[in-house]
Amino acid sequence: MEDVFYCFWFRFIFKYAYILEIENYDKVREIVRRDYDTFSGLMLERYFHRVAVESGRWTRIGRWWDRKGENEIDMIAEDELSESVAFFEIKRQSDNINPAELERRSNCFLAATHRFNGYDIARQGLSLEDM
Prior knowledge:
Oligomer: single chain
Distance between the termini: 20 Å
CATH class: Alpha Beta
Shape: elongated
C-alpha cells in the first residue's frame, strides 16, 4: 500500500476500531502518541525509497540488516553502470543522523557481503529537511 493516509488509517484507526466503538478516544490518542514516531519513520523511509526509484539514477535500491540485527542500513542505492553505491541513514530529525555510525554500518555491510569492490562509495543522511 503506497498511500500514507491509508497506511495511517489501517495502522491506527482500523486496528483499534474496537476501542473507538466504545468511544475511548483518549486510549486511541495514547496509542497514536506511543507509536507515531516509529510509524512516521517507516513512512519517511518509504518516501525516500520512492524518490530514489523515481530519480532514475540507480539500478538497484534496497535496505540491509545483519543476521544479528545489530547493523541496519535504511537504504542502499547502486548504479551498476557507473560502479557507484550510496548508503543512506534516514531519520526524522537531522540531529539524529550519525555519520560515523553510518560509516561503521556500511563497512560492516561491505565486509559481510564482499560487494562493491572498486565502486565509488558515498554515505548520506536524509531527514525531513531533505524532502
